Amino acid sequence: MTLEHKYVEGSPDAPLLLLLHGTGGSPDDLLGLARELSPDSAVLAPAGPVSEYGAARWFRRLAEGVFDHEDVVKRANQLADFVLEAREKYGLGDRRLVAVGFSNGANIAAAATLLRPDVVREAALFAAMSPVPDPPDHDLSASRVFLANGEHDPMAPLASTEELIGLLRERGADVVTQRHPGGHLITPDGVRAARKWITP
């Protein structure tokens, strides 16, 4: 497999959750969140392949909030190819998959949704911002995205989040948003809203 990861089997009737940690995280970080979102789900939790002074990330950045867009595209494709590998290795067939990401993990999930809708069609994003300024004009009419963001998040400014929402909707994606008055975090209200969204 191309990425280090953890896989935990679950019910084939529940969506497979692809867990994508934030900067400096690990595959274990979002396991508790996964149990809150969909207790019966299998989880696939890879580790970010990029090291920033020892902290695992999903793609390089040039400065805080300034992404290396060429690397974003490369890593989004790497993640999508990993998912295809995992489907084969674990016999997952065409089981429904929902990417769940926080911060840097939400950004790579958003990038994969925009760039590889053949692999990632559903994503629950916590504290996400726009990862690529000019993604290809893929038809995303079969895609669903949930976003929960803080109104005062200095690391994922609302202007960038709105740009991401616009890119998704312009391409036909079904987008649901949830705002909270806080900063760069996952709130209980956001988790409840995501749980409801995952099980329509």
From TrEMBL:
Residue intervals of the Phospholipase/carboxylesterase/thioesterase domain: 11-198
Keyword Membrane: no
Keywords, comma-separated and alphabetical: Hydrolase
InterPro entries in the record: AB_hydrolase_fold, PLipase/COase/thioEstase
Molecular function per GO: hydrolase activity
Hydrolase as UniProt keyword: yes
Protein name as catalogued: Alpha/beta hydrolase
